Amino acid sequence: MKVIYLNKIVNRPLNKKPKLELIEQLYAEYGGVLRRFIRVRSRLNKNDCDDVVQEVFERLLKVEDLSEKLDGRKDTVHSYLLQIANRLLIDRDRRAKVRCKDAHVSEQDTLIFSSLCSPERELQNQNELKQIEYALDDIKKIHKQAFLLSRLDGHSYREISDILGISISTVEKYISTALVAIRKRIHKS
Q: Quick check: pTM over 0.90?
């Protein structure tokens, strides 16, 4: 990609400026606006956002007779630049879909996933589940029931209080008691 360096900008009418000077003036006036537009419209990081801004001005460099086309249309320059940026963002999204960028799994993610699914981890999980079952067997039946309604069935505390016929604060105490018992049991082993 080409890098555009900004020098001192002299305000002359658009049609009398050399192309590079015109691009520099447009960058000075609309660079920040384009950056904000791109940041809002996409999920790009700062470097990718800067790349898109640079691509916008790179496209402008390829336009023949740019100063004549922009002459007398000062009010539409802003929307023209935003339109170019929007099309570049659409093109980037299309390329990313074609390349399946979002479906890519890094080596680090693969290592994490393989360690989560390892036989050792599966055995450890089975042992922890047994310890949880033993802990729940050691507590009162109503505490166990409140805990299972919350964690397994996904009921809210209000729903559990209606099911068991107790207050919400009592439900909180029962579930808290069950969690303390589970933590103690798991930390023992």
A: no
